[in-house]
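hi!! sorry for the late reply, been swamped w classes. u asked for the two structures so here they r. pasted raw, havent cleaned anything up. first the sequence of the first protein and right below it the tokens
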Amino acid sequence: MILTCSSCSTRYLIDAASVGPDGRTVKCAKCGHKWREYPPADVPKVLTEESVEITDTVEEGAAPTPEMSIREMSASSSRRRTTEAPPRKKRNWIGWLLFLVILGGIGAGVFYGRDYVVKFLPASAKLYQMLKIDVQTSNKLGLEIREVTSKSILEKGVVRLTVTGKIVNVTGTVRPLPRVAIQLLDAKKQHVYSWSKELDEKEIAPWGTVEFSSSMNQPPEEAKRVKADLVVPKKPEATQ
């Protein structure tokens, strides 16, 4: 609350609560002018002013009001602000707790409901697999071929083509290793020649990787591209 002396226009910053509901008589510390001050009707504005002592006097016939210095008035205001601070901190704490609970619920739903997530968002399977979280996909083998490369070398007048790559287990279970089918394609991606490669390893560990390499001599001149696939083993026919 701001007090302004009507005589010398000196202003003082005090706690509005120190005035009391019935007002009190104050005396300007600069010019000695006295007047009756009443509490403001609206919320007091904060204004930094010079700290000044205000001396109270009691008018004749008025009820005596205990004296209070500007320091005491300011101290009472500080105590009120300190008392009001804890509820605000408590609300902030509850807000963070609620946020963590919601975040944990979402995380649990994404983890335990991962098969449903992949069903509606197939591209999310790659993210789960990167985190080594097993999910159900349309890939029945649970294996992928990656980093397929080819290299041609001329040895004693004979061109030797070598195809290399990696087989990756994208599941959390041991998987059998099928044969690798290698195709040579022309510039229009039409089939030119193909062969298969039986791997020495029979199984691949969960989230494991197995490298393969296969070669042939004198590949067709029209072969421009190389493609590698896994041969899906045929299901045994049911005996009658």
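now the second protein. again sequence first, tokens right under
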Amino acid sequence: MADVFDEVEEELRKERYQEIFRKWGPWVLGAAVAVIAGVAGYQWYSAAQTRSAEAAGGRMLEAAAAYGNGELATAQAHLETLAAESPRGYETLALMQQGAIALEQGERTEAARLYSQAASTAPDRLTRDVARYKALLVEFGQLSYDDVVLRAEPLIENGGPLAPLARELMGAAALEAERWDDARRHYEQISFALDAPPALQARTAEALALIEQHAPQREGAAAGTADETGAAEGAPAQEGN
């Protein structure tokens, strides 16, 4: 008799499992298929990215070799292909190298354009700031002090790694425009910067000395000097009395 009950219970259990599978089976199967497809898609994408990066790396080496051999046209062709077809990081490097070649050939406007384009495609802040700084450096001679400040300020925000060098360009532009107070302020800020390279600190000291030599004397300092001179001149007269 117990065997009969066991068989009935087994049949009922099977019917419940079948009902559950009919209700939820398609969803479970769909989820499993989605997971498998996702893993396969990620692996395909990862492999494609690896192949693309390897191809870009090889083309970058070819461009560097051509450039080193003086074959600028060949180097430019490789770099143009890299900029158009490669992953973002290689695209940025290709644009920056094109900018360097354009600058070497005296095409400053084109070099500035390429550096600016590289900044817009840069995958990280450091690369973007380097490209921006190079573009600013190329165009420095054609920009007013206010334009230099406008272009350099983003490099100074949040203490970027190129902040001291960007500050130097602001100081140099102020110095060229004979904006003595602005120049002094920028160079003094560099002199207090702990992350400024020694060479930059040396240039800053020279700039500050130049400012003190050529800048008009500030009113407060002039008044103080006059008072000291008057006091010094009046002292002997008082002794005579």
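hope this helps!! also noticed smth abt the second:
Residues 2-68 form the longest helix (67 residues).
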